[in-house]
Amino acid sequence: MGARKRISAEQRKEANKAQYFANLRNVPTSPRKMRLVADMVRGMEVFRALGVLKFSNKEASARVGKLLRSAIANWEEKNERKAENGELYITSISVDSAGMLKRMRPAPQGRGYRVRKRSNHVTLFVDTKTEKQN
């Protein structure tokens, strides 16, 4: 690794130490369906968002709920204290498309239809309201 790459990688790592986030990689759900769930909880207080996700009947909401619990645990680990009710908020949540599995489905008259099984990556950031305002 070159010197410039190493320096920029170290700067990126230092910047990530001040942020509290969790990643979910290669989820076998289409990004469009996952974005519906992400839009439900964007900007909410974390414990309220967990309640919304618990009672949502979308399949992706269970995965986002687990990711949110992981982000809360990461915040608690870095701050060395428990999160209190009304303190933590979801500052940003993004859903990006991941790799696609491409399959063929038999079709009439010897043809084949293409089936694209999509997957996605989810990144969720949490932070306190007071730090977000400053």
List the topology elements:
Blueprint: H1 3-17, E1 20-27, H2 31-41, H3 46-54, H4 60-79, E2 88-97, E3 101-106, E4 112-117, E5 120-128, H5 129-133
Antiparallel strand pairs: 1-5, 2-5, 3-4
State the low-pLDDT regions, or none. none
Proportion of beta-strand residues:
25-35%
Quickly give the CATH architecture: Alpha-Beta Complex
Query: Which structural class do the helices and strands define?
Result: alpha+beta
Proportion of residues in helical segments: 40-55%
Let me know the number of strands: 5
Spatially, the strands of the biggest sheet line up as 1-5-2
Q: How many structural domains does the protein architecture include? A: 1
Structural shape: flat
Assembly type of the chains comes to: single chain
| Average pLDDT level | 92
Count of helices? 5
Distance between the termini: 37 Å
Looking at CATH, the homologous superfamily is Ribosomal protein L22/L17
Give me the strand/helix succession.
Answer: HEHHHEEEEH
CATH topology: Ribosomal Protein L22, Chain A
Task: Describe the overall structure.
Helices cover 45% and strands 29% of the residues. α3 (46-54) runs antiparallel to α4 (60-79). A hairpin with a 5-residue loop joins β3 and β4. It has helices spanning 3-17, 31-41, 46-54, 60-79, 129-133, and strands at residues 20-27, 88-97, 101-106, 112-117, 120-128. With 134 residues, it is of the alpha+beta class. The two termini are 37 Å apart. The protein has one domain: Ribosomal Protein L22, Chain A (Alpha-Beta Complex), CATH 3.90.470. It is flat and about 65 Å long. The mean pLDDT is 92. The protein has five helices and five strands, in the order αβαααββββα. Strands 1-5-2 form a three-stranded antiparallel sheet. A two-stranded antiparallel sheet has the order 3-4.
